[in-house]
Amino acid sequence: MIISFDIGGSAIKGGIARSETDIVPLGRRPTPKDDFAAFVETLRDIIAEIDEQPSRIALSIAGVVDPDTQRLTCANIPCIHGRALAADLETELALPVLIANDADCFAMAEAGLGAGRGHRIVFGAILGTGVGGGLVADGRLVNEAGGFAGEWGHGPIIASAAGNPPVAIPAYACGCGQKGCVDTVGGARGLERLHKTVHDLDLASEEIIDQWRRGEKKATRTIDVYVDLVASPLALTINITGATIVPVGGGLSNVAPLLAKLDQAVRTRTLRKFHRPLVVPSECRIEPGLIGAALLGLKADADAS
After folding, report:
1. Which of 27, 72, 120, 150 is 20 to 30 Å from 104 at the Cα level?
2. Given the DSSP bridges, would you call strands 279-281 and 246-249 parallel, antiparallel or unpaired?
3. CA distance 31 to 285
């Protein structure tokens, strides 16, 4: 039995996993952001609630482990940022610890128990506030040792013009320090940024989508520009990885017609031609971080045995 945790900026959620088909969520507790001792104690308290001693713990975190130093970059939880967190927690909890990025855990969940079942290569894409992703091949996470594989949201590759007729697209500054990243246009904030650029109007992403669904011309224009911008880098990602399915999570994945429109555009741009949906809604809609971390922990146990 392992315990998996989904570590967010506001809450820590736990779960018990005995097999791929036996993953049970536990409760949630507030995340201590600035006190590492309190952070450890929160995990310890959740572990203590279980009568059985786990063989290891597995954590899904909105951060990235450097594969060379094993140090974690996690800006929204300062008390664990910059730490060799797995080693620190192993010392504190006297258990083996596995840590993975939350988008990687999402991809793992979808490959094992979601829309990616039966596919050898699964690319999990996040279209939420921003853009993220994870890559699973032959049932294994490419980033098992940490790293940035799957981060299609970053890199200066956004087209300088998009839509029909084309409209000029600035190289927006990205939080990663570069300019022109997919992350600057592909998430909800990016959609709002595009609407401002194209129409000089400030509008929430929900309202843009609602107006598009009602056929409003300006929103329709924004969505066309959005799809044109996002489809090409996603198609390139599919060409490079060989993924045969792309489950999508995040808030924008809940907009079925938007995902269908993106899927259609992507399939016209991939080298391999798919005559079925390729970019699809995720199926692990509840706690994919917990599920993905649990699957990674179970595989680690199997490898160790």
Report:
1. 27
2. parallel
3. 22
120, 112 Cβ separation under 8 angstroms: no
Cα–Cα distance, 240 to 137 (Å, whole number): 13
Residues 6 or more apart whose CB falls under 8 angstroms from that of 294 comprise 2, 4, 15, 17, 23, 58
CA–CA separation, 103 vs 98, rounded Å? 15
Residues 6+ apart with CB under 8 A from 200: none
- The pLDDT value given to residue 38: 97
**Which amino acid is present at 23?**
I
Distance CA(243)–CA(154), nearest Å, equals 19
**Residues of the chain under the 70 pLDDT cut:** none
Rounded CA separation 15/11 (Å): 13
Angle at 133 between CA 271 and CA 268, to 5 degrees: 25
* Burial of residue 13, with CB atoms counted within 10 A of its CB: 0-12 exposed, 13-18 middle, 19 or more buried: buried
Measure the CA–CA gap between 257 and 212, rounded to whole angstroms: 10
- Give me the pLDDT at residue 25, please: 86
Q: State the Cα angle at 155 between 201 and 207, rounded to 5°.
A: 25
Strand partners, 168: 161
CA distance 129 to 55: 35
- Could you tell me which residues come within 8 angstroms of residue 61 by beta carbon, excluding any fewer than 6 positions away? 7, 72, 74, 77, 80, 85, 99, 100, 101, 102
